[in-house]
Amino acid sequence: MPGFSLWLYGVIMRLAQALLRRKLRKRAQAEPLYGQYIEERFGYYKQSACNDWIWIHAVSLGETRTAAILLQGLRQAMPHMKLLLTNGTATGREEGLKLLQEGDIQVWQAWDSPEVVERFLTAFKPRIGLLLETEVWPQLIHKAQEKGIPIMLINARMSEKSLHQAQRWASLIKPAFAGLSAVCAQAPDDAMRLKSLGASVTGIFGNLKFDAKPDASQVAMGRAWREQLSAPVVMLASSREGEEAMWLAAWQTFNKQHPELQIHWLIVPRHPQRVSEVESLITSSGLRVSRRSTWSQEALFSAALLNETAQDSSVILLGDSLGEMALYYSLADAALLGGSFEKLGGQNLIEAAACACPIVMGPHTFNFAEASQAAETAGAAQRASDMAAAMKLAADTVQNRPLQKQKSANAFQFAQQHGGATQRTVQAVLAQLKIKD
Fold first, then answer.
1. Which CATH number is 216-417 given?
2. Cα–Cα distance list, 405 to 59, 126, 130, 266 (Å)
């Protein structure tokens, strides 16, 4: 029988469904995909079901890209597997569509109330559920246990901040973690924190993202574009709300202090729906913007703008595309890590390293603490106290060509040395399914 905390949580989640519908309608105004297939979030599906699904839940864009790495390994081990993919965000669902093969199904994540989770699990009856990174939902775990469906937490991470938050609701959260069939932790600290919540940690497998290979065509195009520019490129990568304003203030000061330096600046917001907002912020300060969507395959700029830009760094490059981070990192000589300058926990730096792009991090990387520390130790990344200090570190790096080449080599080597998580994770999944490799 569920405990009082789980019962109360179920009541709250049931009552909150009206608020979720309102939120989805509001978000759909900017991102129409949120207004589509809404009833899936409440456990109503049009797809026909089977009893053989391998279910992967990847809430957003980053997790979905991680799921793609895992899925490649799973399909090699189980060539005839049927994928049930769930996502929680529009960017995740859009990216997830690329992973589907004939016979696969993609639906929205089921809202974590008792009735909705019951309908979801009854409709699809998955053989196993694979949750990516942090997605542990109390009602889902409880209902899966009742039905005998094993649930694994894959590429699992747990920051110190998240642990403290979970401990506040220990009577609800600990049974959920204890109900997981297996947990594949990224790093020793993650494993320790997960165990303290009652999770059964199968092993410390590393980060799946290290097994991702950058798109070769994007890398080639980015490097070709870089050759067109006479000055180095510094990128603000996966920036979050508030960080572009920080960058702009730091840039204005930096440009006054170092008018002799020619650096091209590239900004790639984490969420594409914010691109127009970021562009308005930049242009309101008298700067000009060149958006990725205006670049041809052959050139970043028209010939006239290219010549002008070679002498004028006030033209800011703006990444407004989805799924082209390898291109942007290959265009850049160094990258400032978005999400690490506001108190947001940072972003994944592994893709930058795989593209041989040196990284400068802000002070807030708690969501990727182990990877950030390892990158710093390896000389693949540097730490700065704030945006202004990060800008100076990046400028010093890209202006010193031998130093930039060394840090670039360090970044690439760091990415290459930490692979293998996919194979280890696939073996753990097969063990849960009692399948011999």
1. 3.40.50.2000
2. 36, 48, 39, 19
Cα angle, residue 365 at apex, residues 363 and 371 outer, rounded to 5°: 125
For the CA atoms of 431, 103, 70, 358, the dihedral, rounded to the nearest 10 degrees, stands at 180
SS3 342: coil
Q: Among this protein's residues, is 63 annotated catalytic?
A: yes
How many whole angstroms separate alpha carbon 255 and alpha carbon 236?
A: 16
Of the candidates 63, 95, 135, 324, the residue annotated as catalytic is 63
pLDDT tens by residue, the chain, 437 residues: 568 899 999 999 999 999 999 999 999 998 999 999 999 999 999 876 677 899 999 999 989 999 999 999 999 999 999 999 999 999 999 999 999 999 999 999 999 999 999 999 999 999 999 999 999 999 999 999 999 999 999 999 999 989 999 999 999 999 999 999 999 999 999 999 999 999 999 999 999 999 999 999 999 999 998 888 889 999 999 999 999 999 999 999 999 999 888 899 999 999 888 999 999 999 999 999 989 988 876 555 544 454 455 445 678 999 999 889 999 999 999 999 999 999 999 988 999 999 999 999 999 998 888 889 999 999 999 999 999 999 999 999 999 999 999 999 999 999 999 889 999 999 999 999 987 65
Letter for the amino acid at 420? G
Q: Identify the burial level of 86 via C-beta atoms within 10 angstroms of its C-beta, where 0-12 means exposed, 13-18 middle and 19 or more buried.
A: buried
The model's pTM is 0.82
Domain ranges of the chain: 4-206+420-433, 216-417
Instruction: Assign domain 4-206+420-433 to its CATH architecture.
Output: 3-Layer(aba) Sandwich (3.40)
Structure token pair of residue 145: 């246990």
Taking phi over 0 as left and psi of -120 to 50 as alpha, with beta for the rest, 98 belongs to alpha
